[in-house]
Every structure is written in structure tokens, then in C-alpha cells.
Fold:
Amino acid sequence: MADWRSVGASDEVLAYAAARSNPGPDPIATALAAATRDKYGDLAGMNIGQDQGKLLQWLVDLTGAKTAVEVGTFTGMSALWIARGLPADGTLHCFDISAEYPETGRPFWEQAGVADRIEVHIGPAAERLADLPAGRTVDFAFIDADKPGYATYLEALLPRIAERGLVVVDNVLWHGAVVDESVQDDNTLAIRAFNDMVAARDDCDAVILPVGDGITLIRPR
Structure:
């Protein structure tokens, strides 16, 4: 069940959930996952699973989002699902430091009929987010990039989020390491600090869901 994963869930539970989800496995996402594994090996684990992808698509659709932002695109799996949730005239702005990785996903975006909704911006997201048109509201944002940068990305995005918009942040449970005090690497420390920071804010509401590697849903107050 490589395309279905949630922190703490057994393989049997994941298999049960996958078998009873409707519709079943998505062929385009499955092919993109395979292409990523073939090209990048273990790095393919950075892509989200199909359960999380379907959730992102639904959240985009349910919020009525027209303008979306993604920080950290890799080979474009999450971009595929987010773009599917947008209307035909919607736009997903993808920010990544690599020009190579997103190109792996482009043929699959085209196959899904969503390539024209996706604009890729290459460079440090902390700087490139400022390139978005002034005063433009963002309806949906997904953060899944370098963990020490999470706080910076949220600070840049939250003031731009529409009144009924949503920010989704990935990897907030970090394979369960957030509760293991013996783990003290930079990424784990950054995730813990980010989670504590979000929980202490008075300008937004947030909830952590144990989906995938843990996601936080954040809405401005």
C-alpha cells in the first residue's frame, strides 16, 4: 500500500481503507508515482499518497478555491490533485527550487487535463511568494517544502489567504518523531517548533489530522 500511508496505521487498516474508497486507485497518479520511483528511487517517498491527494482535491473543491499556491512541488503529485479540484479557469502557483523535478509531472498533468491550470515558479519560495500580484487573495495553499522554512512560508501566506480560505501543511507528525524526544535532528526540531507556534497563534484556527505523515489545516480568524 505504498500510495496509502497514515502515521500509526497498520498495513491491514490501510489496505481496508484503500479497498473501500470510491473511486479506487487513480491510474494517472499511480503512473506518476511509478515514474518518480523509477527516476528518483527512495526520494519518491516525498510524494503524497492517493488518500491525501483525494483529500486535497476535495478541500480545494469544497472551499470553492480559484487561486491556489503550493510551496514544494517535487514531481508534481500534490499539484496534480490540487489542480483537479480547481475550476477550469483556476490557477495553481507552484513554487520549487528545482526546475528538474516538476518537469517529471508535467506529462501527467497534461494527461489529466490540468496542465493549463498550473504555473511553476522556480527559486526560493520565501522570495518568490512576493512575486504574486499585490493584493491578490489566495483561496488555498499547501506547504510541503523544507521543514525549517515552514514558519516563514506560513507568515508569507496567511495574510494573503481569503476569508474562507485554507492552508494545509504536510509532514507535521514527521513519522511520529515529533513525540520522540530522543530525536533531535534539525527537521524534527523545526516541525515541533512550527506546530507549537501554530497552536499558540491567536489569528488562526488549526487542527492536526493523522492523514499521511500528518497534516495541519489552518484557517485565518
Observations:
- The chain has one domain: 11-220.
- Residues 186-200 form the longest helix (15 residues).
- The mean pLDDT is 93.
